Batch of 4 targets.
Target 1
Amino acid sequence: MSSSDIVSLDDNNIVINDLPNDTEAAIRYIKTLLPATFKYPPIVFIRQLYDIVHNKTLINKELEILRKQCKIQKLTIGTTDSSSALILYEDYVNYTLNIYPENRSVKKFLNVILPSIKSFGVEKCMLLQKFKLQQYELTELINCGLLLIRNQESYWISFPSSGNFIKRYIEGRKYIIQIIKRRKFQEILEHDLEVRCAKVSKIKELGFKYFLHDIKGSEDIINYKLTIDKIWETFNITILTV
C-alpha cells in the first residue's frame, strides 16, 4: 500500500500518509542488517534495493518521491559522477550533530542548505551566492567531511569519516567475491559462504547480509535456488556463482 492509498473504515475515508512506500521499507530493512556496534551512518546502496524490491523503475520513481519529501540524501560513494547510495535525512542529521554538536557552519548546512539542494552534489557558486557562505564556512564543511571536492567548481555531499567507511566496505565486498572465485566452479552455497564469513572482522563490521544484498543487487554474482523434493520434505538451497 502506498502513502496515497485510502482505506474505508466505518464509512469514513481515512487517508493514510505515514506508511512508507516499498523502497523506503527496503531502506529501513537494510538499516536493520547493520550491527549494533556500527560506528558509521547507516548508508544504503541503491543496488541493495534492487535485490529486495526487484523493480528498478519503481525504485527510481519512489526514490525521487522520497527525495522531494526531504526523507533521503543521495550520496556518491567512491569517484563516480552519479549517486550510488543514500541515507535517511534523519540519520544523516543525527550522526553529524553527534560529532559536531556546536558547529554553527554544520548546523547551517544541515538546516538550511541541505534541504534546498536535494541532490548528491552542489556547485561552489551556489554555496557562495545563494546561501551566502563565507570562505571559512566552506572550509569548515570540507574539513568536517560534509563536502567532498569534486573539482574546482563543485562538491559532492559526503559525511564524516566517509573514507574509513568506504575502505571497509570495499575490503569486505572484495573478500566475499574472492571466496566464490577461488572455488573450483566459482560457485558456493549461500549458507556455506555465510559460515565462512561469520568470524571475519572485515565482514562482521558491516554484516554479511548487508554485503550479500549489495553484491546480488549489483549482479556481480548470480544466485539460483535448487529445490530438492523428498517424500515428506522440500529443501530450497540457494547457490551463488560469479
Target 2
Amino acid sequence: MTTLLIPAGVAAGLYLIRKQREYSWGWVKTNHSLEGKIFIVTGANTGLGYEVTRYLIKCGATVILACRNHDRAAAAMKKIREETKKGEMVPIELDLASFESIRKFVGIIKEKYPKFDCLINNAGLAVQTDQTTVEGIELHTGTNHIGPFLLTNLLLDDIKKNNARVVVVSSKMHERATVDFENFGKYTEKPRGERSNHLYNNSKLMNFYFAKELYKRGIDVHVCCPGLCNTDFFRDYDPKFYHYILFSPVILFMLRSAEQGAQNIIHCALDNLNSEDKNPDKSYIVIDLKQAKSKIDLSDEVSEKLWSESCKLCGLN
C-alpha cells in the first residue's frame, strides 16, 4: 500500500504545482463586448493567433484573419464557428515575407476596413537553416521584424486617425539578444556557446525596439511576451520523442497551452494601460498580464537607428 501512496503523492504534488503555475500566468477575466470593433490579427489561423481570434469572435468582434494560406484560414474559421455564432471573420491573404503581399493587404484594408480598432502583430517564426524572404532578407529579421514594421508603417495614418491600439508580440528571449547593424538583414552563424536561436532572439529584441519607437511617436502600442507555449511554432525543429523526455521538467513547469499564452496578447489588445513610468519606451513588457521591467535598458540611439535602417531595408522614406 505504501509503495502506491508514494507515487500517488508525487503525482498529486506535481499536479498542484502545475495548477499553481497556471494560476500565476493569469487569465483575462473581464467580460468584453466587442460588437462593432475591428481587429487585425496576423497569423490568425494557428497557435496564439488562433486563440486570440477565437476569444475576440466570442466577444462579438470583427476579426481580419491575416494569413498566408487561405485554406488554413478557412479551416480555422470553421472550427471557431462550431463554438459560436457571434462576430464576423474576414480572411485576407498576407505573407509577411513578401513586400508585395504586405502592400496588397494594406490596400484592401484601406479600401474596405479603414476604421479598424487594433492591429495585433502576432505572426512569427523560428527556423534552423539559412532562409530568406522574397526580397532576400534573412527570414527571422524579414518576417518577424521587417514585415510587421512595413505593415504597421503603411497603416500608420489609419492607426492615428482611429487612435487604434497596436500590439507587438515579442519574447523574454530579447534579453539574450543584440541588434547587429553590421549584418542587419543577413544570416550569421550562431555565436560560440549560444544554445538558443540567436537570429530569432535578435528579431524579438527588434520587436521590442519597434514598440519603443512607436510609443515615442505617440502610438498606443503594447508589447508582450506570451511565454513558452504548446503550439506548432517550432515545427521546423522536428522534435523527436526523446526530446519530450529530456525536456519534461520544462514542459511541466514552463510550457503553457496556446490558449493561456494568448492571454497576454488579449490583455494587451483590450485591457493593458501604459503609464508614464511603465511603457515600452521605459523598457516595460507585459508578462503574465502585468507590466514587467526588462533586464535590458532599451537605448534611444539603437531604437532610432533601427527605425532608420528598417526604413531603408523596406524602401520607406
Target 3
Amino acid sequence: MASITTKPTLVTLRKILSELRKQSTTKALSENQMAQYILQQYRKHQTTDQQYCKAIDEMHFKAKSYFAYLHNCRKYKEINTEFKGKGERSVEDTARMVGFKLPHDPK
C-alpha cells in the first residue's frame, strides 16, 4: 500500500476492520487473528523511504476485494435468514397471503 495513512488506503482498512468486528464473536480486534493478519499485511506492504512497493494499486485492489467479500457474505447471511423458505404452505395460508378467501370461508 502506498502509505497506511493515505486516505483511500486508510478508509479501506477501517472498512475491513469494521466488517471483521461485526462478524466476530469477540469485539476486541486485538484477539482476532484475521485482523492481526490484515494489519500485518498493511504494514508489510507500506511504502517507506527505503522501500518502494511496485504493486501499490494491486494491494489496494485486493484489500477492497476482501472488504467486498466480507460485506457481501454478511449481507447474504442476513437476507438468507430473513427470507429463508419455511417449506410448503397450505392452500389456506397461500390464499390468506394473497388476500383471497376460500369458497368455504365465511364472508
Target 4
Amino acid sequence: MSQMLKALLLEKQLENNKMLNIFYRISFMTGVNVKYQATFKDPVKLWNGFLIIVSLIGLSAQYCLVWNNRSEPFAESADAICTANQAWISILKLIYLLFVQHEFYDLLHTAINGSLLHDLGIFDLAINSKQYLLKEIKTILNDSWLHIKHQLNFFTFSCMMACGFYMFSCIFANYYFTHIQPQNFTLQLPMPALFPMWHDYGMTWPYYPIQYFITGVENSICGMCAVCFDGIFIVIVVHCSALLEILHKLLEHVCDEEIPQSERVKYLLCCARLHERTFRYYEKINGMYRTPSLAQCVLSMLVLCVVMFMANVGLEEDITLFVKMLCFLCAVGLQIGIYCYNGQKIITQSEISPVAWYSSTWYNESEQFKYIVNMMVLRTNRTLYMQVSGFTTMSLMTLASIVQTSGSYFLLLKNLSGMD
C-alpha cells in the first residue's frame, strides 16, 4: 500500500509542475531558477545581478524626480515615492534570492514532491483503513493545491495588471500629446523618473528608448519579483498547513476498530514522526521569511498610505493617476495580505493540534500509548506563528493593524497637505 501512496505523490508532482509552468517562467525572467537545482555559480544569476543594477539606476532617477519636485505639492511626487518604495521591496528580494535561491528550491520542491509524506510508515502497518486514509490524504492535497492555484493566478494577474498599465500607458500618452494633440507636457516613462542629462532630448533616439528600457526593467521587476518571491511563500505555507491537516485527519482514526490494538502504538508513532517533519519544515520556512517579511510590512504600509492619499485626490486631478493608484493598491495590498492570510492558516491548524492528539480515547489504551499522547500534547501546546523578525506575526490581526496604521498616516498626510 505504501507503493500506492508513492504513486499518488508522483501523480501530484507531475500535476503540480505542470500547474507551475508559468510561475517557473516568471521566476526565470527575474534571474531565479527554482525549477532545477542551481549552484552558487549558476549563469542565470548574472541576469539577476544585471536586473538589480539596472533597477538601482532607475531608482536613482526616481529620487531625482522627487528632489526636483521638492518645492511642489506632495501630490506631484506621490507616484514616484509610491513606486520607489515598491521597487525597493523588489530589489531587496532579488538580492536575497541571489544568495539563497537553492534553499528556496529545496522548500518549494519539498512541497511539489510531497516528500515529507514519503516513508510515512502508516501504510506498511496491518490496518484495514488504508484505502480510506489514502483517499483522505488525496482530498486534502487536491484542495490545498487548488487553493495554491487560485492564489497564484489572482496574484499574478494583479501584479501584471499594475505593471502593464504603467508600462504601456506612458507610450499612448506620449504619442497622443506629441502627434494628435501637441502641447506642453512632461515626458512619461514606465516609472515616474527624471534623468537630468537626457531630460531636454524628449523622445529622440536613442535617449528616450534608453530611459524607457531602464524604467521598464525596474517596472517589470516590481511585478515579476513579487510573483516569484511571494509565490514561493504561497506554495510552501499552504502545503505546510495541508500537512498539519493531514496529521489531524490521521489522528481522528487512531482508535478506530479498523486499526488493531497491537498496531495503534506504531500508528501513533508514525503520526508523531509526521509532526516532527512538518515542524522542521515550518522552522525552515519561518527562518527564510522572518527577516524579509519585516521590510515587506514596513514598505507596504508606506505604499498603502501614499496610495490612499492619491486615491483621495487623484479622481479630481488626474484619472490616470487614480487608476495607477488602484492598481498598486490591489497589488501591494495582496502582497501583505498573502503573508498574513496564509500565516493565519498555520496558526489555525497548529491551534487544533493539541485537541487532535487529546481527542482520542487514549484512556482505554496502553501505558505507552498514553505516554506518547501526553508528550505530543505538551509538544504541540505552543502555537506556531510565521514571525515578522520578532516584532509581530503574520496573522489577520497583523493585517488589520497594518491597514489601521496606514489609515492613520494617511489622515496625517492629508492634514499636512491641507495645511500647505
